[in-house]
Amino acid sequence: MSNADLLARRARLLGPNVSTFYDEPVHLVKGEGVWVWDAEGNRYLDCYNNVPHVGHCHPRVTDAICRQAGMLNTHTRYLHEGILNYVERLTGTFEGDLSTAILTCSGSEANDIALRMAEAVTGKHGIIATDHTYHGNTSAVAHLSRTNIPAQGDGSHVRHVPAPDSYRPLGGDGGLAHARTFAAKVQEAIDDLESSGHGFAAVIFCPAFLNEGFPVLEPGWLDPVAKVVQKAGGLFIADEVQPGFGRNGERFWGHQRIGVTPDIVTMGKPMGNGHPVAGLVTTPDIMAAFRKSFRYFNTFGGNPVSCAAAMAVLEVLEEEGLQENARRVGAFARDGLGRLAEKHEQIGDVRGYGLFFGAEIVLDRGTKAPATKYTTRVVNEMRRRGVLMNKLGIHYNTLKIRPPMPFSQDHAELMLDTLDGVLADLGMPRD
Amino acid sequence: MSNADLLARRARLLGPNVSTFYDEPVHLVKGEGVWVWDAEGNRYLDCYNNVPHVGHCHPRVTDAICRQAGMLNTHTRYLHEGILNYVERLTGTFEGDLSTAILTCSGSEANDIALRMAEAVTGKHGIIATDHTYHGNTSAVAHLSRTNIPAQGDGSHVRHVPAPDSYRPLGGDGGLAHARTFAAKVQEAIDDLESSGHGFAAVIFCPAFLNEGFPVLEPGWLDPVAKVVQKAGGLFIADEVQPGFGRNGERFWGHQRIGVTPDIVTMGKPMGNGHPVAGLVTTPDIMAAFRKSFRYFNTFGGNPVSCAAAMAVLEVLEEEGLQENARRVGAFARDGLGRLAEKHEQIGDVRGYGLFFGAEIVLDRGTKAPATKYTTRVVNEMRRRGVLMNKLGIHYNTLKIRPPMPFSQDHAELMLDTLDGVLADLGMPRD
């Protein structure tokens, strides 16, 4: 079946505006490690997908799913050791009293709960997020994102602060000055929420601001914000759906790398290597406040099969040393991008952490004018040459490179060589 | 590990108030067909779980999950035939132009989308549900249920109408008079929403009112309500999370049995036999309105493994004739409950559809006073004798019997014999 036929079937069965990647979408049929294959047998290096965290179809995870699915799959109103063993191991990766968890099916569901936890603790509704974020797809969390039109209420309880941008820092100065400017913006939003009557309940940030374009932010950068939030009596929700589970290379969680202790940590995509499992971790006090104020039960959340998949992911991460791999290969790849920047004037900035990194493509290094359309052409040309990546950021001109964790130096070299050729062949951007 | 130890670990790792079933919770370790086993090797007849729809650990479903999890698991921004083949087969079970679908991880996510669809079509927010319902756990759908304390907004856009009750019909008359009384209550709620400024967007009902206690409602009973809703320009959302997928025995979907055509049908629990897959089906026009107003992407929704699991469920239902089994065994079991009612005065009413049925336990048949606490004792004693069921309904005095679909006459007889003994041994209720 041709791509045109598949796209026609999608339009008929799934409706209009269901987005696909690339000018010519990829019809995938098989995956293994960092590789995927299309229906015609073409192989692609996957530099994009963080969901197959320990590699596409990792046999350890697949075996764990098969074994448990053949044994028992039921919900948490019966006792089962699977969820307890998993939550014990998961919370063991956290500091302080981040020691209790709720498991859900999606990161959206986890963030949706986090908002209610903030309400239960503070008695207030107001939430602060950045103006270039995404925290999920339920009605409540869609309010947080400017790329969704919110529903069931007007979203007047949400304030957006300018996303941190280390390449073009607000106020002109980077580093600690930038951190203080950001904290001041959060303080303004808190004051506005308090005076509006909503009150201030929480901030929700990806601690590496990955959708915002993964700015370079040194450890301590979030301290001024954390201080402002704490002083105002709100909660700090860290959305670790992307930077967590070792991806940043240095520490297991993104908030640990930047050195902030959140009140609630939410997680999702990579947690079950593709199996729909997600959740949040918080303190016993916050959990008790939530459980006192709200009844919550999730039929599929924390079922034995989901827990088996998630446990296998933690085991593989440790046994295969994938956090260290992310640190080492990520550094190697960023160095490689830096060398490409010496040859290709259109690379304005190279940045990232571990296996979440990329390069900002600009029309001119002096003006830093974003080469948004050109970046789309780069991504499409990479796909044609067998390397899957995408773009993101405030100006949508930043290459988004976020491969499965077993990404090796050889894979990085193949990606860099291909990118070198594409940038050379496309030449300097004009748009 | 003892139950006491497991409960202590749960309290520590999952927090307080995470409910379990029964005075003495069951520590399950294995499931097969309609049977589950606890850690001590005791076998239980499962008369409760609709999630393992075609039977616990059905090998066809497990094989489908294993095969696809070992081949590829990714999201819908790549082309894949799995979701298209599944949605084609799924929508083939619907009438009219209910021909497009969105797949999610949970029924909660599906209902959350349905509310936004109603908003996209009508431009209004007001939703009507019954006063004894449950439609899920996201912030937006938690508003619909009185058993949740809503969050992120005050829920002032929700109106609750009295749940239909064929045993104690509102106004005193059953049948069509009851239907008209119910429709009048919905009309009142619509008028109230319109005058309050919220406007009327949709009703959301389980078309068999299962949580409400599965009242006996003949085909045509919902016609007066459907007329009122249509005249007011609102949508009819049918929450088929429980009655769908052949469970009612007579037709594949609950709304088909009662003879109403909804605008949106949501589904969940049984869809993947325990694998976290859910979704909704609607018309192309409603889907287009939603896709025009809202951006929506669900990372795990419609992934190849979820679709393989869900497809296997549809195949097994057909190949094993499970809808016909539900009709036949359900009728046999209800007849059996009727015979028990001749012996046991405490059974006030027997009702249900297919493999969702039960008996209302009362203190006195004349006053119909509910024997709520006694019903809890019945459920706990059934569990001690190896038969798992629960209770529900407006007065929480109705036995909830909702077994996996391969439930046979022999299984029904075992359940009936056990119940006969329990009712005899407990004697007449006093509370």
Task: Please give a quick description of this structure.
Two copies of one chain form a homodimer. With 431 residues, chain A is an alpha/beta fold. Chain A contains 13 helices and 16 strands.
Describe this structure in words.
- The structure is a homodimer of 431-residue chains.
- With 431 residues, chain A is of the alpha/beta class.
- Chain A has 2 domains: 3-54 and 321-426, Aspartate Aminotransferase, domain 1 (Alpha-Beta Complex); 60-319, Aspartate Aminotransferase, domain 2 (3-Layer(aba) Sandwich), CATH 3.40.640.
- The first copy, chain A, is 39% helix and 17% strand.
- Chain A is built from 13 helices and 16 strands.
- In chain A, β7 (200-205), α7 and β8 (235-239) form a beta-alpha-beta unit.
- Chain A is globular, with a radius of gyration of 21 Å.
Name the features.
13 helices, Aspartate Aminotransferase, domain 1, Aspartate Aminotransferase, domain 2, 2 domains, 431 residues, alpha/beta, homodimer
Distance between the termini of chain A: 35 Å
Tell me the series of helices and strands of chain A, N- to C-terminal: HEEEHHEHEHEHEHEHEEHHHEEEHEEEH
Instruction: Tell me what portion of residues of chain A adopts beta-strand conformation.
Output: 15-25%
CATH topology-level name of the largest domain in chain A: Aspartate Aminotransferase, domain 2
Number-wise, the strands of chain A total 16
In percent, how helical is the residue content of chain A?
25-40%
CATH architecture of the largest domain in chain A: 3-Layer(aba) Sandwich
Class by helix and strand content of chain A? alpha/beta
List low-pLDDT spans of chain A. none
Rounded to an integer, what's the Rg of chain A over CA atoms?
21 Å
Looking across the biggest beta sheet of chain A, what order are the strands in? 4-10-9-8-7-5-6
What is the helix tally of chain A?
13
Largest interface between protein chains, with number of residues from each side: A-B, 103 and 104 residues
Instruction: Kindly report the oligomeric state of this protein.
Output: homodimer
Shape of chain A: globular
Q: How many structural domains does the protein architecture of chain A include?
A: 2
CATH level 4 superfamily of the largest domain in chain A:
Type I PLP-dependent aspartate aminotransferase-like (Major domain)
The chain-level mean pLDDT of chain A equals 96
CATH class value of the largest domain in chain A = Alpha Beta
